[in-house]
Amino acid sequence: MATNTVVSIGAISIDENYACDSWPAEGDKRLIKRLSNEVGGMISNVACNLACEGIDSKLLHVFAKDEYYEIFKTELARYNVDLSLSIESKDAQTSHCLIMNTKKDRVIFIELGNAIHYSINLEQLEKLKESRFIYSSISELKRINSIKDVLINLKSVDLVLDVEPDTFLSFENDQFIFDAAKIIIMNEFGYEKLKKEKDDIIEYFRDLDKIIIITMGSKGAHLYDQNQLIKVDGIKVNVIDSTGAGDMFNASFLASLIHGKSYGEALNYANQKAAQHTSIYGPKASLENKL
């Protein structure tokens, strides 16, 4: 097993950032100002963050052959993300993420495009088997044909799941993917959704020898394993933009583990990096000094 390789499976998108004074009531309207267009996407952000931490970072994604294709390739090359496992399809469409920023918070709309299903070939499967971690979400993994068989073939590799409310249908529906994971990183809203369906979800995961992390933004994060609960407090910073902070947290945690740190050290480092990330505008702006 290659100890310095993480394969991130999932989409890259265009983040369209807008500003408005306040969020309108239903049926109302607001004037908005376009701020920027950025190359984004939760999974690809993690791949870029990992590469900047010195990790051999690969992205497995189905690229649309459209006007954004060369932009994506150029952007990922800047961060030294390996695209050798990715494929192209004329049937795919690029996803767009519309981020509406008010003075108090932000609201995100995701236009999924055409999320096609695809198959993993033998060459890709062998490369996946050589990785230290596979990082993805349930919704992205379910785009892979015969995903149950693929996960069985990859049981020797630690699967890391990014869990948010919109990335899974229900615990009952997606249990086979939860059960296949070694590390489950949930934001507080993903945890609340799971807990409503299965009240003992933490103990369930602990009994299966999983690492469970619950991130809580400015309130810090908790990590559970079979034997302990580790807590880190939130770090006070001047928040400019929280876009991509969760991606920074997840990538920093995995990079720390690969570099030989303990769970507690990795959690503390990830918490610090995520907090620092929110003090700069843009989903990957905090990485610029590492390029």
Helix content: 25-40%
**Whole-Å distance between the termini?**
28 Å
Mean pLDDT value: 91
Give a count of the beta strands, DSSP E runs of length 2 or more. Answer: 14
Please outline the major beta sheet.
Answer: 8 strands, mixed
Structural class: alpha/beta
Keywords:
291 residues; alpha/beta; eight-stranded mixed β-sheet; four-stranded mixed β-sheet; globular
Q: Could you walk me through the main structural features you see in this protein, from its secondary elements to its overall organization?
A:
- The protein contains 10 helices and 14 strands.
- The model has no long low-confidence stretch (mean pLDDT 91).
- It has helices spanning 42-52, 69-78, 122-129, 138-141, 147-153, 171-180, 188-197, 201-207, 245-258, 263-277; strands at 5-9, 13-19, 33-40, 56-60, 62-64, 87-89, 95-101, 106-111, 133-136, 158-163, 183-187, 211-215, 221-224, 229-232.
- The chain starts with a strand and ends in a 14-residue tail after the last helix.
- The strands form 3 sheets. Strands 4-1-9-10-11-12-13-14 form an 8-stranded mixed beta sheet, with helices on both faces. Strands 3-2-7-8 form a 4-stranded mixed beta sheet.
